[in-house]
């Protein structure tokens, strides 16, 4: 077990920021953890997802399942039922980078799903293996949060691990763990739609700086008992405009 852990916030297709952040990771001494939501929106979701897959398989990285990984899996399992929701959440950008721009005008959701599965057959099985949380020392890492109304946080539903918001942010944390999460951007947690710093409150640490919206990508270094350092890279390049 490595002595430190380097956790990267929600990347959402921002491949340039992702690669830049990884230059700060020492793979010899630090366990790499990706908090989820590698794809959808952003500069190049395909490259982010495939790089994350390589990091897991070749470097032992931990890649937590986010709600956007769940939506991609849902689309691949049932394209007609899940296509609209996936596209509303930036999924078309992912599909276009895996296949080609303008595919929605040419193919049905079922055809798009078939093309994706046939050209990238390892993608779906890989996403299905992603864990929902990771415990490390005094810390619990999870994409969205846990159900703090449960006596044991491990009773959290699979849906809440990747989707929960206010009921986790506002309820008292009595788990005995410091919970590190992404999913909800820190400008929303601060309530000013501006502050991209880490959000730290009640033994909860929000690390999604909203990079894809022009905010910042965080890489946060921990040892088993404390936060050691935060590396914050402001997004001065590609900003998702919401069109796909």
TrEMBL record:
Residue stretches making up the Calcineurin-like phosphoesterase domain: 7-205
Signal peptide positions are: none
For this protein, the record's InterPro entries field holds: Ap4A_hydrolase, Calcineurin-like_PHP, Metallo-depent_PP-like
Out of the domains of life, which is the source? Bacteria
One Pfam short name: Metallophos
PANTHER family listed in its UniProt record: METALLOPHOSPHOESTERASE (PTHR42850), ZINC-DEPENDENT ENDOPOLYPHOSPHATASE (PTHR42850:SF4)
What is this protein's name? Serine/threonine protein phosphatase
Whose protein is this, by species?
Answer: Carnobacterium inhibens
Q: What is the lineage of its organism?
A: Bacteria, Bacillati, Bacillota, Bacilli, Lactobacillales
């Amino acid at each position: 077990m490595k002595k430190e852990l380097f956790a990267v916030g929600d990347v959402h297709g921002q491949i340039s920021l992702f690669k830049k952040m990884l230059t700060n990771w020492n793979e010899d001494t630090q366990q790499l953890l990706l908090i989820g939501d590698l794809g959808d929106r952003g500069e190049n979701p395909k490259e982010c997802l495939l790089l994350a897959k390589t990091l897991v398989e070749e470097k032992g990285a931990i890649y937590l399942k986010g709600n956007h990984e769940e939506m991609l899996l849902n689309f691949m399992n049932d394209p007609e039922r899940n296509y609209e929701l996936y596209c509303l959440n930036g999924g078309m950008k992912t599909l276009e980078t895996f296949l080609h721009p303008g595919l929605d005008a040419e193919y049905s959701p079922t055809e798009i799903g078939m093309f994706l599965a046939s050209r990238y057959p390892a993608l779906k099985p890989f996403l299905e293996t992603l864990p929902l949380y990771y415990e490390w020392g005094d810390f619990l890492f999870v994409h969205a949060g846990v159900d703090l109304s449960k006596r044991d946080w491990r009773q959290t539903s699979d849906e809440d691990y990747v989707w929960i918001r206010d009921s986790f942010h506002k309820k008292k944390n009595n788990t005995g763990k410091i919970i590190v999460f992404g999913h909800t951007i820190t400008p929303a947690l601060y309530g000013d739609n501006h502050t991209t710093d880490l959000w730290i409150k009640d033994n909860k640490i929000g690390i999604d700086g909203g990079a894809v919206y022009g905010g910042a990508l965080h890489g946060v270094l921990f040892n088993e008992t404390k936060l050691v350092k935060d590396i914050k890279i402001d997004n001065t390049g590609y900003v998702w405009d919401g069109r796909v």
